[in-house]
User: Fold Beta-ketoacyl-ACP reductase from Pseudoclavibacter endophyticus.
Amino acid sequence: MTTRTVLVTGGNRGIGRAIAEQFIADGHRVAVTSRSGDGGPDGALTVQADVTDAATIDRAFSEVEAALGPIEVLVANAGITKDALLLRMTEDDFGQVIDTNLTGVFRVIKRASKGMLKARFGRVVLISSVVGLYGSPGQVNYAAAKSGLVGIARSLTRELGGRGITANVVAPGFIETDMTAALPEKTQAEYLGAIPAGRFGRVDEVAKVTAWLSGDDAGYISGAVIPVDGGLGMGH
Assistant:
């Protein structure tokens, strides 16, 4: 295993935190971003950044680079939800989710790519969702953003693949986190009934796949969408 400098956006809670903890356990140099600038896991450098604000992203990257070295692995995980049925969803609800979950990913990739191109090495992993290709009522904004990550990863692969940079998507299904726990019980029951595995996923299961995609053994995988959903999406 080659030790790398890793940055996980939104790594202070949920799936992002589990991913950061996995990289720490694997012996990497790890930094996480949070909007408040605190709350990261033990062993990680926590920096303040809002993915909707390019200036804070640049400042966070500079802080990580000064402390840990050039960022070699970027896990774009930060995201929000503002669920509502189409006719009740406001343009602001739609725009905020797109700006955070899609445009925010563009911002962090653009900043990270500078160092990766110079080093002729990089691993970009985008945390999407089964919803991106499977769809979900009340999540037009979220699904649009998460499906857009597939286009970003595949375009990056064609643009930067010859420079030693890979870009892949991990698409979790229903994972046990605070965010999913907030969903109505009826919605949770409907999802459980549709999951062939018959259970919800764990954050560590997403983390292990993400870490593997970022490692030496996955150097010839790029533009892929890896589902971690117990069969819920079934290839979607």
About this structure: The chain has one domain: 5-227. The first strand starts at residue 5 and ends at 8.
